[in-house]
Amino acid sequence: MSVLDAPSRRRRKVPAAVTGAGLLAAWGALVVAVPHVPTSTDIRPVALFVHLAAVVLGFGAVLTLDWFGLRWMLGREDLTTVVSVARVVQTPIWVGLGVLVVSGALLSPDTSAPLTVVKLLAVLAVTLNGQWAGRVQERLVALGGARPSRRLLGAAVLAATVSQAGWWTATLVGFVSAQR
Ligand code: HEM
């Protein structure tokens, strides 16, 4: 057995429930902390620009992935390509989401407003779904190009649907809130 094969050097997989609980706790901390984040009118335009740039980065990457997924379902792309794209877009999606949370907190969101609550729930859904979608992706990779079962296919479609619904909801709520 080589050094790299030793159990201590193997990449340990964190159970989904543990990651999910961590993300839920981080979201709870965000909701509690947001009203106390110090902001100023000087910083607002910068925060808004960064927020919008992060929408472009994160949502743009999500749309790219879902476009490849749709093409795969229509038989115009193979699964290997879709899985490769999914791997590549992970970083912009999670970086975009992280920057959205930080810049959003600097925009003085009113957490007592129902629209803001809807938006924060959409962000939670996108986050937890993103973690679950990663697991679905791993199972697709493990197929090595073979045809996925109906169950796995259903899981992939559900993950893409929840992702689209969450990102569009957050975008729409952000837009509506900015008009008030
Ligand atoms: C998927 C995540 C998110 C997306 C896609 C998103 C999208 C947007 C969009 C499109 C706007 C409109 C900007 C404009 O038209 O000027 C906006 C504004 C805003 N967002 Fe987000 N956002 C997200 C996450 C968050 C989070 C996590 C927070 C809070 C922690 C937040 C707080 C705000 C606030 C306070 C505004 C400004 C509303 C106003 O001008 O009164 N956003 N967002």
Task: Note down, in words, how this protein is organized.
- The chain is an all-alpha fold and 180 residues long.
- It has one domain (39-179).
- Helices cover 74% and strands 0% of the residues.
- It is built from 5 helices and no strands.
- Helix 2 (44-73) runs antiparallel to helix 5.
- The longest helix is centred in the N-terminal third of the chain and has 30 residues, at 44-73.
- Protoporphyrin IX containing FE binds next to helix 2, helix 3, helix 4 and helix 5.
Coarse structural class: mainly alpha
Shape by Cα distribution: elongated
Mean pLDDT: 91
Bound molecules: protoporphyrin IX containing FE
Strand content: under 5%
Q: What's the number of structural domains?
A: 1
Q: Tally the helices: what do you get?
A: 5
Oligomer: single chain
Distance between the termini: 64 Å
Question: If you compute it from the alpha carbons, what radius of gyration comes out, rounded to the nearest whole angstrom?
Answer: 19 Å
Secondary-structure element pattern, one letter each? HHHHH
> In percent, how helical is the residue content?
over 70%
Strand tally, please?
Answer: 0
